Fold each of these.
Amino acid sequence: MKWYRLYIVTAWLSIGCSQKTLEKPQWLNATSSITIGQDSLYFIVPEANWSASISTPVQLIYPDLVQNEDELVVIIKPIGGIIEGMAFLTLESEENQFIYSFQLKNPQKVTQLTDLRTPKTLSTDSSLVQQQILYRFDDVGNLIPLAGESYFEEKYIELLPETGTFQSETGTPQSSFYVEAGTVVDIPLSYSLDGPNHQIRIQTGPLMDRFDNKIADGTHILFFFQRGDQRIKIESVTEDAFATLTVPREMVANSKLVASIAQVSSQTLNLLPND
Amino acid sequence: MTRWIFIGFLFLAGLLLVSMARIRSSHSVVPYFLRYDSLALNASPQIDIQVNSIEKPDKAQLEKLEKDYIAIWAHLNYLYQHPNPRPSQERFTERFYRNLAKNYQKGEAGSIQRKDSQHHLFIKTWSRDGLSCNLLDRDAQLTYLFPDGSSQTVTATVAVSLLFQGDNWRLDAIRFINETPNQPHL
């Protein structure tokens, strides 16, 4: 029985230690450049179980293998695409590893231009010069030259003093930028009587910046009513370049009214001076 | 009888606590300041930076860029050998990561390693808001280590587009323009 066990151990060790050294497979259609999804690699291989991996410039991938007797076909599947550059194919069988290098490329890819604008929001009060940075890449993330050998471009664009939401050269919503109106130039002030309700309707507007753009909706506006020693402050916001306010007649009659937006104030308006 | 009811109650309470702890641990996301990026911390290539852009980054911004660029390469080198992009998620923009995730297949680690030892960065554009940086990495020294123990060092020129998202610079697009072996591989 002991002899029998010794025989098994010796046989197992001899099998384990006798690693088969294989000849390097011959690459039949050897080339310096491979396009994924289009080119397959053909090898003449010794009979064995083969596996393969490809070290692309950014990520390790596993191709499909089709083995027919001594022929091995390596098919790089039409995956999402790879970062292009020098790649290494490793053919592996047991402890044998064989390396082949080539340039790996994607098939023709759709490219996308990135147009970054800084600042994204400009005001007509301030500089209207915007920085533009351009670069192009495919849908995998390979940078594509813009012109000649240049991968990046930088420009400074002076925008028109016209308010609105604009899109850059790419036309994508992410590339949108905004020109906002600046400070109001003048605050025209008027009032009218709302007879049946005994109220006074006060109106300011149109409120425009120095380039004749409507000032932004929601701009904070203050109304100051002065009657003798009594001073009343009422806050409001603008909408579509106007701000309106309705107040009880008895509260503001014979008052002097001034409206202010930031540092800009209207002329003084006398409310119902004959009352 | 009361004793058994009490023991049963304790058992159920214990079971509830254990299951709650399991649910909590499986869903918890470690906050950024507690994350330990061992790949980035163990990488130490030499980097020098030249600013050619019209907008100039300040010293603190350059230090942050250098630190994050080292981390990005540490993760690129990790991915070179291991196909799973999940540990590197914080180093890539969403669109770049999405493609890596699409290509991911479970499998054995690759037998070829890549190491980076030097980078010479030329900043070509720097956005006014400090959120975009495009650069050329000229004369980068990359070494490929093969399973037979041999190695090959190449001098590479790489164009890189980075975006500052979240708390760090992330790789948005890249181009390996050329890789020239310093010596023929034997």
Note: The domain at 45-181 of chain B is CATH 3.10.450 (Nuclear Transport Factor 2; Chain: A,).
Amino acid sequence: MVVNQIPFEEFHMLLHRQGLRVAIGPFNVCIHTSYKPLIEQLYLLYSHYRITQDEIAEFHVRIVTERSLRNPFKRNIRFLLDGQSPFESFPQEQALAVLEWGINLAIAVRVNHLLLLHSAVVEKNGHVILFPAWPGSGKTTLCTVLSYQGFRLFSDEFGLMDTQQQLFLPIPRLMPLKNESIAVIRNYLPDIVMGRPIPNTQKGTVAHVRPPEKSILLSKHTCKARWIIFPKWIADTPVKIEAISDSEAFMMLASNAFNYEALGATGFCAVADLIRSCDCFKLVYSDFDSVMEVLHQLTNET
Amino acid sequence: MHWRTNHFETLLIENWDEEYTVFQPDSGKTHFLNHMSMKMLIYLDQKPATLEEISAYLAVQFQQEPDHDFQRNIEKVLYHFDTLGLVKKSFVGS
């Protein structure tokens, strides 16, 4: 059963009482909150996720409201992971952004049985394309466009690699667009479901895009990687894709991982295997039509 | 003073067309080495050598003039590798 198959009242009750358990990629996340505006947003944006009430949850997270110390008439929200608070409190209107960051944090610090690359990941023709990049390079924006234009979304943030089998695991989560990207995507993809813009967050204004239903339905379908593309959005720049050396790709990929050093030799061997099995490129672009053309050409050549 | 490798046998080395990524289990770090640096480590792994011997060997291998500047550059690399724990100094009798 998926979220949009239950009435809002039941959804509200689950979040408020025992916690809503949903399958997000290979993990079950148990979410508790009584904050109604957040519940309303989750009902819309989590509508395609499978409910897993009877299964074990890897992560237990909560959004609770509390009085602001500075202003007792104002209420803030706080994120809790297994009862612990890794962040300070935030204004109530940022609840969704804080929940999403909190779940990302939980994955980034708790998951060490997989190699966690900091990378957008999509699938085409049975093969994964990795877009490893640090924040600010436009990978979430690019990933949003690709995942609604014929590519299957694995993640806009995490390249989850099973190092034994060299397989990537999908973890399709909400895609948080930032600042100018929000209007750009609204214009380019007017039919997608997007949450309300949340202003004044640590990353500016953020709006979350609901992942495509098909990507969530297929989130148990793992794939091997075939291409590694380091993307960079630069205004008014014609699209350009060029091959890079394996050694350069190795160092860039390893430095774009959350737990590469923690995995030690396992991480080193996994990255080496990955580089050997992929073609590696740098991509510079400014408009989506051109980059789609380049990527369709690349993925259809093989 | 001689230079020698430090736990060279434990390093995991990937050759990417004469550029190398090296995993060092002792530190958990990954290093990026060019061809000359790798030749230097391999040479030192055969036997300890002085700066002059290493410089002379590499100058021949890479068709360089074994002049003062070349030797200075090799010395800098050796001291850098020393801080990384890839090589260590040894003294006669030690």
Note: The mean pLDDT of chain A is 95.
